[in-house]
């Protein structure tokens, strides 16, 4: 009679028949080998649906018109979520190209696309989503150390897609794949200051943004230690400025949520923010702005940008400013304006925090660009609790519910957390 599996052992070590030290966020064996550390509650089993195309041959599977439509939905729509900070559009161009011949990535694409369809328009696609999701995880945990799918960034890209799948599915632990992919992302040379192009680099920046989103929801440090990671100096594209502020914000989150900071660290942070802000080209600022008014129907500012990455840049900058304001004082924000923010006049800390939150909502909901909205949930979760005006609170709830119907993101928990922070009755 087989012995029951020991609780806490990762499924990757179980498959490889190795001793697992059960460390989190990734066990010692997976850290050493750079493998995906599968932490699902029980080992993934193959789910058989005879009528669904076999993903072992993606090009053959794509002859099924439903699968072809799902693949097209990813390439024409969903992939933009991941190319927000990548001028090469690796998730929109390279991922589909590789997926045509690579079952692991093909399964990730179809799983995410079908779950998105399930949540926005066609609930019947759940069966398809679950089938390809299980197959994708099965492919991931079968990878061996040194597999080229890891070194090329294919496995990391797949896990970024799977995390979005888990979020759309409303999984109790949407952080599962974020933990599992940690070893792949942490091996990225950017941690040592060496930029990496292509899918591996794009996967790293997506992982870091997803890590930031989770940390802003949970108010906890990132899984990734960025302490010794140098800041980006050269920016060859507008997207590089987003990656740069992403790195700065990640450092700020780790410092603030570990709560072991001193005054000098905040001085360094403010200098980093100033230096980055001063390097931003003028065209990245909003080209049009209408300030919101409680007395009108425009409760949030209307803020228009040339590119989606410019909106995401301001989001992360506002979150950074919010954290600095929380842990220091409003006076310390002097000289940190710019990027066409309203003048940082002499206000109370509460006024600063509310204004930053309203700006974040305005940036997110003016153009309603899906990639910006997806990236905005973390900033909204952390900052919108400082909104005091009831009319603005109700408008935010309305806008979030509208997002659910268009991009499929489950917003119930976010709305519930905000209502709790506002002291609003739960319905």
TrEMBL record:
The keyword Transcription regulation does not apply. The keyword Nucleus applies. SMART domains: GAL4. InterPro entries: Zn2-C6_fun-type_DNA-bd_sf (IPR036864), Zn2Cys6_DnaBD (IPR001138). Keywords: Nucleus. It comes from the Eukaryota. Gene3D superfamilies: Zn(2)-C6 fungal-type DNA-binding domain. GO terms for biological process: positive regulation of transcription by RNA polymerase II. GO terms for cellular component: nucleus. Residues 9-37 form the Zn(2)-C6 fungal-type domain. CDD domains: GAL4. GO terms for molecular function: DNA-binding transcription factor activity, RNA polymerase II-specific; transcription cis-regulatory region binding; zinc ion binding. This is Zn(2)-C6 fungal-type domain-containing protein. The lineage of its organism: Eukaryota, Fungi, Dikarya, Ascomycota, Pezizomycotina.
